Amino acid sequence: MGISQPYRMLSQAERKRLARIFPRFKRIYLAPNLLALFIILHVCEMSAALGFKPNIVLMLADDLGIGDVGCYGNDTIKTPNIDRLAKEGVKLTQHIAAASLCTPSRAAFLTGRYPIRSGMASSNAYRALQWNAGSGGLPANETTFAKLLQQQGYATGLIGKWHQGLNCDSLNDHCHHPLNHGFDYFYGMPFTLLNNCQDYKPPELDAAFQAKLWFYTQLIALAELTVLAGKMTGLVSITWKAATSFALLGFLFFASWYSSYGFVKYWNCILMRNHNITEQPMKLERTASLVLKEAVSFIQRNKHGPFLLFVSFLHVHTPLFTTEAFLGKSRHGIYGDNVEEIDWLVGQILDSIDEEGLRNSTLAYFASDHGGQLEAQDGAIQLGGWNGIYKGGKGMGGWEGGIRVPGILRWPGMLPANTVVDEPTTLMDIYPTVAHLAGGTVPQDRIIDGRNLLPLLQRKVKHSEHEFMFHYCGSYLHAVRWHQKDSGVLWKAHYMTPMFHPKGAGACYGRGICPCSGEGVMHHDPPLLFDLSRDPSEAMPLSADTEPLFQAVLKRIDRAVEEHRSTLRPVPQQLSLGNIMWKPWLQPCCGTFPFCWCDKEDSSALS
Fold it and tell me: Where do the structural domains in the chain lie, given as residue ranges?
């Protein structure tokens, strides 16, 4: 019997689906009642799709410059997988980080809020968490996008870098831990990479901080000797219990100083699975393989979805640990090798999504937490990223090079392919965007600074919802951008800028991160004003003589600053000196403190 006309009207995919459901009807006449049943099933399938929750894979590089990526103009470093993501999705050209340094930028990404609102913006020289054993971190009352999606039935996982703190008051309270912020699963580094994590690298902890510890250690040691000698000779009236306590205090100070040279690798450079330490210290030569293995495994375990996977890469932060397969392969030394390796890692994760049949049901996102570090050098060798035509870099407040980052989103069938969006967006926009996709709502009891990107990405609106963006350096407002939607002009006013080294190619004095205040910062009155729509490199500051709207623009920006500051509320400062200092009773330790060591990874599983 031939195939009926109604059967011929079905698509090939529908015929295959019908054959799987009713295999014995594959080659016979399709009865009207069976056709009706199929139509009902098809309608039900469409109805279910309306409430469909996509899987979400967020990939965030560490310190990657916008000029390091092929689809953003680099033709000397190979990034075919990131470029493919842009060709298959939407590329954002004005994607802005809320801070030019790791800890505050990532806090803003996770919460959709400027870091100053959560206390993750510092007024001192230490603008990022310094130790695993500090007490500061992302407050428990902040609601991350992971927590929102967890409430919507998502399986949530974080693989890679955290750098948002661990404990508050005791070793195991884990108040800042990823599992306390909405992630069901965590594998990675609770801290961040330091040169101290790799042998034969110069220590990366602040030299002035080390010198202070050494000075205090010497004073206490001298005082200890005086007290003990006085006690033994009877010249000092003190109990042995008090003398012992004093000696213990001296030991802790000595340990604090010595740790900056000997124990940092063991105390800060660790890997954890959920609440348990798996490597102390971590073995950098296999970290990339472990991160990739864990990311792919999470996708495979949760392929029936919905799931949220946040892959927070350790690449391309110094030290540039690079596996042998990529060493010497690029034209830009070990930094280029490291960039090409992260591109390969991105490709492997995308391939895993495709292999599990999740391509069309997964929103994939790639970005960097801020710009590349210009001061990262080893002699004449550049170890930091390239920020393209944009001035400045990591740690430099409001300069574009430190905050303008690559941003790419792909969701086949839902987002247009090979599309470019030139409107201002921010990493904070991911928060309300994924909340919307998951069917949730953002918290109504606090200000959310991010905006849902979907209408802009799907070209349902022409302009970004962001009119003003505020660029902080720690807790200091350095710059403000104003997007005039009607004219398309993008103004930017700098109130403060870091002082560049005369021969430093846009880098700051010394080898450290630029300061936010003090002698290393220039104050501008009137502010430096640029028109980024004509001068994206911020090379030609405007004046009242060259720009007729100069005074009017600055007046409008000043009013926006006043309105913004009126929304700020006092909160505990998570990066205060008291919160970032090393506290021995909070030190994660696998073994006997202070000699912490363990290796619980199965090396054979990596082969």
Answer: 5-50, 55-193+269-586
DSSP state for residue 509 in the 8-state scheme: S
Residue 484: CB atoms within 10 A of its CB come to 14
**Does position 214 have pLDDT exceeding 70, yes or no?**
no
Is 226 within 8 Å of 238 (Cβ atoms)? no
Contact of 222 with 193, CB cutoff 8 Å? no
DSSP code for 239: -
Q: What is the mean pLDDT of the chain?
A: 87
Residue with tokens 């990311």: 295
Provide CB contacts within 8 A for 184, sequence distance 6+.
150, 155, 156, 157
| Three state DSSP letters for 229-245 | HHHHHCCCCCCHHHHHH
Helix (H) or strand (E) holding 349: helix 333-355
- Sign of the CA dihedral with 94 first, then 97, 98, and 101 last: negative
Specify the 3-state DSSP secondary structure of 527: strand
| Percent of the chain's residues with pLDDT above 90 | 72
Residue 108 contacts residue 432 (beta carbons within 8 Å): no
Helix (H, G, I), strand (E, B) or coil at 232: helix
Residue 478 has pLDDT above 60, yes or no: yes
Whether residue 280 contacts residue 591, with contact meaning beta carbons closer than 8 Å, is answered with yes
- In this prediction the pTM is 0.86
- The set of residues, in sequence order, having a beta carbon less than 8 Å from that of 181 and lying 6+ positions away, is 110, 138, 140, 142, 144, 146, 147, 164
Distances (CA, A) of 384 to 40, 65, 315, 376, 607: 58, 8, 11, 5, 31
d(CA 373, CA 375): 6
Give the C-alpha distances (Å, rounded to integers) separating 132 from 102, 267, 277, 539. Answer: 15, 7, 12, 40
pLDDT band at 33 (very low <50, low <70, confident <90, very high): low
| Residue 431: closest CA among 421, 444, 441, 445 | 441
C-alpha span between 105 and 405 (Å, rounded): 12
Beta pairing partners, 92: 407, 421
Distance CA 91, CA 11 (A): 33
pLDDT digits (tens, 9 = 90+) for 94-148: 999 999 999 999 999 999 999 999 999 999 989 999 999 999 999 999 999 999 9
55-193+269-586 sits in which CATH class?
Answer: alpha beta
SS (H, E, C) 198-211: CCCCCCCCCHHHHH
Rounded-to-integer distance, Cα 445 and Cα 448, Å:
9
> What residues are annotated to the active site?
102, 163
Contact assessment for residue 384 and residue 394, using Cβ atoms and an 8 Å cutoff: yes
